[in-house]
Design brief:
This protein is globular. An eight-stranded parallel beta sheet has the order 7-6-5-4-3-2-1-8. It has one domain: Alpha-Beta Barrel (TIM Barrel), CATH 3.20.20. Helix 5 links the parallel strand 4 and strand 5. By secondary structure, it is α/β, with parallel strands linked by helices.
Length: about 230
């Protein structure tokens, strides 16, 4: 058995265990395999082991992989920063975008989504820890952005994404996710059903606080090599 397959089975077991331990319904949390900087061959191994959702952050790299893997039934998620000149390619080649942090980008994705494709699923990125180095709207700005994005055609607003400040203490890992989850739920919008929370180090806390998609890269594919 390959290392990637072994890791995939371990991660999925951890997710199921965290669901059970936190009272979540079995299967309520999906794994998004973050494959940025990794070759298409690694994606194939994970795919053959049953993984179907893959996340990419670098557009040109992602497009090359998509072309190489065109025959595979993969759901591609874009999870990286979005520049205005990249929106057309993202709108055309991805099913999900997790990193929409301003109305301008949402409008461009809406305008550039081809008519022959279903609506583009998007999550709004929230800077829940108020870190200067991270993108995202504040919790206070979120309701207004939700109202504006919900009106756009060819966009299906699904929920929110957050990357809190790293912390090793379980309760402190939980707090930012809890605040964001409760803020979204208080809006009482049934279509906001996606919470893109959690990575390797805070997976259990994220699941305890409502995550529906956990983004796991290094624990699955190994350390990244940035050239």
């Amino acid at each position: 058995m390959s290392q990637i397959k072994q890791r995939l089975l371990k991660i999925k077991s951890q997710i199921r265990h965290a669901e059970f331990a936190t009272g979540r319904e079995k299967g309520s949390v999906q794994l998004l395999a973050v494959s940025k900087t990794k070759p298409a061959s690694d994606i194939v191994i994970a795919y053959q082991a049953g993984q179907r959702l893959f996340g990419e952050s670098y557009l040109q790299e992602a497009l090359q992989k998509q072309q190489a893997l065109a025959g595979f039934d993969i759901t591609w998620h874009f999870i990286g920063p979005i520049q205005s000149n990249k929106t057309k390619a993202i709108a055309t080649n991805f099913s999900w975008v997790h990193s929409v942090d301003r109305l301008k980008i949402a409008k461009r994705l809406s305008e550039q989504r081809p008519d022959y494709l279903p609506a583009l699923n998007i999550c709004l990125q929230v800077n829940i820890s108020h870190e200067e180095t991270k993108a995202g709207v504040t919790l206070e700005q979120l309701p207004a952005l939700i109202d504006e994005v919900r009106q756009l055609p060819k966009i299906c607003l699904r929920g929110v994404m957050a990357i809190p400040e790293p912390n090793t203490e379980f309760e402190r890992q939980c707090q930012p996710y809890r605040s964001l989850y409760q803020a979204v739920k208080s809006l009482d919008l049934i279509e906001l059903d996606c919470f893109s929370f959690g990575m390797t180090g805070d997976l259990k806390a994220a699941i305890a606080e409502g995550s529906t998609i956990v983004r796991i890269g290094t624990a699955l594919f190994g350390e990244r090599s940035y050239k």
